[in-house]
From TrEMBL:
The lineage of its organism: Bacteria, Pseudomonadati, Pseudomonadota, Betaproteobacteria, Burkholderiales. PROSITE patterns: CHEW. PANTHER family: CHEMOTAXIS PROTEIN CHEW (PTHR22617:SF45), CHEMOTAXIS SENSOR HISTIDINE KINASE-RELATED (PTHR22617). SMART domains: CheW. This is Chemotaxis protein CheW. GO terms for cellular component: cytosol. It comes from Paucimonas lemoignei. Its main location: cytoplasm. It comes from the Bacteria. One of its GO terms (biological process) is signal transduction. The keyword Cytoplasm applies. InterPro entries: CheW (IPR039315), CheW-like_dom_sf (IPR036061), CheW-lke_dom (IPR002545). Pfam families: CheW. It is found in: Cytoplasm. CDD domains: CheW.
Length: 158
């Protein structure tokens, strides 16, 4: 039995909010959580890439998830945080409205993402997690940061 299976870490998600919705990403992708700070803009970068920050000598691109997911105009306040992720060996920052907690979900608590037809791309959704009265949208962060966008991130690092 692997260490992950024995500890159940693979079923743990960091829950965060964007607008009125609660989302979750695999805790194993999360490196750290930081307060939102001013970023250095990159010319000609897409709107959702807010810019970059210097994190202990590493230049980290910062992506605003409200803009990325078309969830209205982002606001930045004392609750706004940046989740530093490790994706494919690269550090990427993800701006979210707030972080709530770490949740553990059993396979029975995860429902498949509903089919939305062509109206919405749901490839990046793992499913919907239910915990008591909460419903958490589980996101496959690797798929969300698609290879095209990771290519943009690569250009910033270059």
């Amino acid at each position: 039995m692997s260490v992950v299976a024995a500890t159940g870490v693979d079923n743990e998600y960091l829950a965060f909010t964007l607008g009125e919705e609660e989302y979750g990403i695999a805790i194993l992708k999360v490196q750290e959580i930081r307060g939102y700070e001013t970023v250095t803009r990159i010319a000609n970068a897409p709107d959702f890439i807010k810019g970059v920050v210097n994190l202990r000598g590493i230049i980290v691109p910062i992506i605003d998830m409200r803009i990325k997911l078309n969830l209205g105009t982002p606001t930045y306040d004392q609750f706004t945080v940046v989740i530093i992720l490790n994706l494919r060996g690269r550090e990427v920052g993800m701006v979210v409205d707030s972080v709530s907690d770490v949740i553990s979900l059993s396979p029975e608590q995860v429902r498949p993402a509903p089919e939305m037809g062509t109206a919405m791309n749901t490839d990046h959704l793992i499913g919907l997690g239910t915990l008591d009265q909460r419903m958490v949208i589980l996101v496959d962060i690797d798929k969300l940061m698609s290879s095209t966008e990771m290519g943009l991130i690569e250009k910033i690092h270059a």
